[in-house]
Amino acid sequence: MSVTGTEKINLENTKLSRFQKIGYASGDFANNFSWSLVSAYLMYFWTDVALIPAILCGTFMLVSKLCDAVFDPVLGAIADRTKTKWGRYRPWILFACVPMLLLNIMCFTVLPSQSANARAFYCFACYLLLVLVYSCVNIPYSAMPATLTRDGDTRSSLSSYRMTGAFIATLILSQLVLRVVQWVGGGNEGKGFFWAAIIFSCVALPLYIFCFKTTKEVVEVPIEKVNYKGVLKVLKGNTPVMILVISFICWGFYEAAGGAVRMYYFKYYVGNDQLFIVNSGLMFLGRVIGTFSLSYLVTRVTNKRTLPMISFIICGILMIIMNYLPIHTAMGLNLYHGFTFLTGIGGGLGIASLFGMVPDTTEYTQYKYHQHAAGFVSAFITFAFKFGMAICTAIIGWVLGSLGYIANYGQNLNVMTAINVCMNLVCGIALLGSGVILYFYTIDKKTHVHMIEEINKIQ
After folding, report:
1. How much is the CA Rg of the chain, to the nearest whole Å?
2. Which residues lie closer than 8 Å to 240 by C-beta, 6 or more apart?
């Protein structure tokens, strides 16, 4: 039975059920059993377990993430031109998740070799392959909302559900990873991290399948066969996309600085690595609250930039203050934990809002350039995020190594100062930058409705 134009428009603008939103969110819940595990623990695993020099670790992170960042837009353009009975983007999730999870385990495996060079090469090769295969899952996944519905508030709700799922997974990891490492490893951190990676990868697999089964691509857009050079033209003068790019670069700096250094911060600077579990739990609990609140708050603003702009600026100020708190006193530590919880709420609300803005920029691109490039635009924005992470993570490794970082020993004053600055001051400045640039984002709800009307006329 054929579908009339009116029925097609109604189908594309449908408001998804809560079950469908949970189904989509399960994909990012699964993603973070790899992404967050690697972001929070791999740098520490390399330096303190695999005993690879910090400078070399920083270089590995830079090369791998830059390769990944360059690969993302290429993959996005390929995903845009994929055509199967399951849709454009869903098949990528189904078929790429298994090799990705296997590589996730391999990344937390210490090569049984006395040669530091052999261990280092193995770690680098596994991580490089992981980030590339992870993109085969995450880039199509991130582009999917543009094909699930055209309704703007529903997309923001999808982003809220997605990021809530992601941060719930991260909250679980923050509370369980070190406990699993200690329980299974029995004092052997290498063995402990290996089995932790196996356990969490096994949990992720059925979640990917659930995501695939519960989503359906209903927004039909023409598949345009354009060359890569042609796709790049949609970035020229594309102000909304470039604003998100800058904002995501800043967020990448924030994520890299806080994620890579947090273990070092509590193990060496604070002197109690068990507080890592407490502090991480507060931050990710805050993020869950922040992301979940987006569905309610987004309906009360006329421009989606408002929520992340305010959230990032407030959180940036708090993190700059945290750099100067007397963390080694009871009052200072309690304030630090309290501010961490607040920045978790603001950060969760802010990043969920940013992801909810990505589909709108892909439609702005289609409206202005008459070319569908959801996968490419999504990948280019992700490129910005990973570029920020790559540069920041590399600098952290280089700085710690050059200042004399020695794994599993007391650190000198310069290393301790660098750890504190990276953990707090750098994060605060990055968040401020992300918030300020969003002031110039102009796609409000009225503009978005007009764009959709014009796109429907063309189609």
Report:
1. 22
2. 360, 361, 364, 441, 442, 443
pLDDT in tens, 211-220: 999 988 887 7
Q: Which residues lie closer than 8 Å to 242 by C-beta, 6 or more apart? A: 235
Q: How far apart are CA 314 and CA 353, in angstroms?
A: 15
∠ CA 79-85-88 to the nearest 5 degrees? 15
Q: What are phi and psi of 444, to 5 degrees?
A: -90, 180
User: Is residue 118 domain-resident?
Assistant: yes
Residue 120 lies in a domain: yes
Q: Is residue 442 part of a domain?
A: yes
What are the DSSP calls for 383-398, one per residue? HHHHHHHHHHHHHHHH
Helices (H), 233-305: 239-264, 275-297
CATH number for the domain spanning 434: value is: 1.20.1250.20
Q: How many domains does the chain have?
A: 1
The residue type found at 107 is C
pTM of the model: 0.80
pLDDT for 164-183, tens place per residue? 888 889 889 989 999 999 99
- The boundaries of the domain holding residue 184 are 18-217+229-458
